[in-house]
Write a structure and sequence with these properties.
The complex is a heterodimer of chains A (291) and B (340). Chain A is mostly helical and 291 residues long. Chain A has eleven helices and four strands. Chain A has a single domain (2-121, 130-278), classed as ABC transporter involved in vitamin B12 uptake, BtuC, CATH 1.10.3470.10. In chain A, 73% of the residues lie in helices and 4% in strands. In chain A, strands 1-4 form a two-stranded antiparallel sheet. The longest helix of chain A has 31 residues, at 2-32. In chain B, 73% of the residues lie in helices and 1% in strands. Chain B has a two-stranded antiparallel sheet. The chains are: A mainly alpha (291), B mainly alpha (340).
Amino acid sequence: MDYYLMQLVNGLSQGAIYALMAIGYATIVGVVGMVTFTHGEVIMIGAYAAFYAFSFFAENLFLGIITSFAASWLLGIVIYKVCYERFFDSPRHIPLICTIGFSMLIKNLAQIVFGPNMKAMPQPIDLGFINVLGVRINTIQILIIVIVISLSTILYIVNSKTRWGIQLRAVSQDKKASALMGINVQRTTMIGNCIGCGLGGVAGMLLAIYYQSILPTMGGVLGLKSFISSVLGGLTNIPAAALGGILIGVTENLGTAFLSNSYRDVFAFVFLVLVLIIKPEGISKKVGGRP
Amino acid sequence: MISNTFENVKKIYKKHAKIINIVLIILLLIIPRLMPNSYLMGIVCRILMYATLAGSLNIINGYSGQFNIGHAGFFLIGAYTEAILATTYGWSFWPAMIIAGIVTSIVGFLVSLPTLRLRGIYLAIVTLGFSEIIRIIALNWTDVTGGPMGIKGIPSPELFGFRISGPVDYYYIFLIVGILFLFITNRILKSRVGRSWISIREDELAAKSLGVEANRAKSANFMYGAFWAGIVGATYAPYYKFIASDMFTLDEGFNILAMVIIGGQGTLIGPFVGASIATLISEVFRFASQYRMVIYAILIIVMMWWRPQGLVGAYDSILAGDDKSLKKRKKSITQKVGDN
């Protein structure tokens, strides 16, 4: 029994990371209105940025968060310029293929620049264990959950209280009307894309710390999982996407506890098919974007 | 400029279609006798194989406007079905090839089922996930698929007592499969079924309101594309005599997708052009194979920026998405229908 409780805790902390990725994804799809395939590569770049910050400067957690956020933000600007800016009036498959091409580009350039092999991620905090009712929880898991909750809170405050957030929500609801209200739609869309990318980058750093390793091809499956998580919220609803991420993390870890570890990535896919069969529009009413 | 040249070539071809076809087929038949060099013939074989494979993806992506990016999964199923039937059960190549095609098309039907009610992007993710999952299963189901060791010693096909192996002879099998594919697909595209696919691509709502059963047509389209992917997979396995799950990664799927996009979606000749370019690029950059995918990726982005319909794609389709082509499209429609 304790074993399954431990797997549940593992699932919750891993699910928290997936939730952060999915929050970023839902933000992007909501604001930009187009589906992206680059999110996995954004996550990978965030992880590598933190890796180099840790190994060249200091193994400081806040430095890592800021570097990965900034690196993914910059990548978000490039993605916006290459994949979205020209294509708002085109058929939707064109920007989609463009993001596929861009993700191939980043993945293969990363293999050339960073080297194709797996590297060990430096650990910014000491590994320790806390016993709660016989369940061992390690400090990294607590750290992950704390960071994810605080980042989501910051995002919530930005979204609901600041001028930027109001602009973002306006643009995600109706681009034409917000342009008529004097909002710079292009710039706001870019900022929304960059916020989503930045959150993805931080999630990448957390995942690299959690697994203690880093790999240029880690992005592919992660991008898929962040998409699958946000399917639960109709691709644009942020809280539902976070819930989806946590559910996928728990499903994966309990699934590997009952079955074999080599089928880990299959569970997320089964989850997707189940959601698509039972509730294809997600648990939210409003379906925004044009995926 | 490209469009003018292309239109001229098309005109000349239409004028002398029969003669050109016969000359082309004779030329294709004697190529191995002209250059019995197995390295060069190996390249030609790869071009032919990938042309048919990209063509089968093009049926799904280009003709019905669905979005499949995990084509490597279907390729894998075809290859593994043939290999298992041939090695474990001792089947001969020809029936095994047909069975491989049928199995793959059934799997294609199952994959298309959960997404019929939904918009295209969900199908894209389901196919992407499917491709990765089927690879994981092939890697881990050791009893049947050999696991990480793959399947070795797949026997070469036999025809009238002759054993066909080596690129110079095997070329004919790829050629026959390719020509059969082009011929049958051409007939289907001109039939009621094919026209319903194209109408769904251009405007699904309009097609539905004119009585096209969109769901059935989309499923049939997916099954047909998957069938040919299975056939190509089945011809691929005995050619290399060895298959393993790492030959069918997501990158392979993107590779096939890149060929279709570079060549031109929604044309029969496009995948062939794309496959030739991609194979030649990978041969020229053999010394720096890791730059190959970078070049593909840049080509895809460049294509999307300036020619979204591909090198030989049609101007008057929804695949060519910018304003200029939209205007042209409207113009061509008004020319056809008359001003209103």
